[in-house]
Amino acid sequence: MKTDVLVVGSGIAGCAAALAAAREGARVTLATKATEPEHASSWWAQGGIAVTRDDPDSFKQDILSASDDTADPDAVDVLVENARTAVESVLFETLDVSFDADDAGYDYGREAAHSTRRILHVDASTGRHILGPFLSHLAELPSVEIRQDTAALELITHEGRVHGAYLESDGEIEPTFAGSTVLATGGVGALYPQSTNPDGSTGDGIAMAALAGAELQDMEYVQFHPTVCVGEDPFLVSEAVRGDGAVLRNNDGERFMPDCHPDAELAPRDVVARAVARERDRTGKVTLDVSPFDFATVFPDLAQMCESRGVDWDAGIPVAPAEHFLCGGIAVDSEGRASLDRLFAVGECSHTGVHGANRLASTSLLEGLVWGLRAGGAAAGFDPQPIEAPELLDRDPALPARFAEEKSVRLRRVMDEHVGLERTPEELKRATGVLRRLKGEVDAYIRTRTSRELYELRGQSVTALLIARAAAENPTSSGCHYLSEEQTPHAD
Question: Could you say which enzyme class this protein belongs to (predicted)?
Fold first, then answer.
């Protein structure tokens, strides 16, 4: 199979890349593991999408401050300077997203580490109101083919150039040759036992790019969201709830964030997440007190989630941190180009430099949109060049029952205990050794077997090892990478 542009992933970044490439006259194949829009991380975005309004300088400063002053100022300039055009041309004019409004205009929200209200939103379920219309629009374009339930297993490369990828669908595997390839595979939530990501977030794109020789950067910066409602069916409680006045209390009823940071509940995510974890350890429980406002009226979607799970928000919503976003990834330039020729990366699997050590709330959808459009435009104009691609072998018996599941559980336990919210050099060294051995076990099987679950497990093992190694090599605490003096139990 041949296509001008192969986009792997169907979140907002992948959709934006496909749209921009199609607008440049390219034939686009969008391959996604998802069978429903909600299987993409963008669907789960609650808070909204930050925009510049009339304050580009303060928006830039908020991004830099939230990153612990580690974000790339030039990359932040690209985001801020292109935000208005991207939002207006795609979300307003093309998709006609109905963002919440009041008599005075759009009802801009505020979230942690933002100095002002600048977040467009649709209740607390913004992602689904963007992604659904986006996929529907792409499906109507004659030059775009959307292939659902289709996984990319491995990039096809030759002498530093990417020529496409092997795609698997319904057990059938075929090479797809592309003039250029755009990875938009999302995050790494499946590397941790508790995450706000969908189950398919196994780090596939990062692993494929790394194995092909692409440069990666800042892999140690894994962001944890501080307020995930705990229970049998956990769910994210948007930062916008704290932006509207909700406060965090420990099991003694004490509000603790004012003692942790001048901005209290609106401190950067890494600060709030660590504070919540410590108060849970110290007192046994942390709740989000939503009594300062009419929760059910302001956030009806979240109220419904609470009701369906038997959570009494009047008594406070029980919360804990959970893995949320990878700030690092495949190193790219201002147009999404990776270090390998004809390879692009956008969205959470990429590293643009915008987030540094900690991402500012509600910038992920914006980054995906801005870089998706830029990468899609830059990726168009190349003809596919089929090459003699090596065959993926599948000659040995099928994997033992539950092999992938059991290895994945082991991996998540190691990441949770040793490469989580707080880390120590000793534990990172131990995790690296365990993950290296686990990757070796997976490699031994993958040489002669080919299946989606095995390649997803490879994605997990490669990406987990990259995160642990990067963390072990960075002796300085910053943002999401926090080195603690405390020791944790062994997981191996």
Answer: oxidoreductase
pLDDT (tens digit, 9 = 90+) per residue, 83-114? Answer: 999 999 999 999 999 999 988 899 999 998 99
Taking the domains of the chain in order of start, what are their residue ranges? Answer: 2-221+327-379, 229-322, 403-473
| Token pair in block for residue 384 | 């596919």
pTM of the model: 0.95
* Residue-wise burial string across 441-473, b where 16 or more C-beta atoms lie within 10 A, e elsewhere: ebeebbeebbbbebbbbbbbbbbbbbbbbbbbe
CATH class of 229-322: alpha beta
- Residue type, position 230, single letter: V
Q: 84-118 burial by CB neighbour count: b if 16+ within 10 A, else e?
A: eebbeebbeeebebebbeeeeebbbbbbbbbeeeb
Q: Is 118 a catalytic residue?
A: no
Is residue 38 within 8 A of residue 394, CB to CB? The reply is no
d(CA 103, CA 381): 46
**Are the C-beta atoms of residues 322 and 223 closer than 8 Å to each other?**
no
Q: Which residues partner with 337 through β-bridges?
A: 344
Catalytic residue among 128, 269, 274, 430: 269
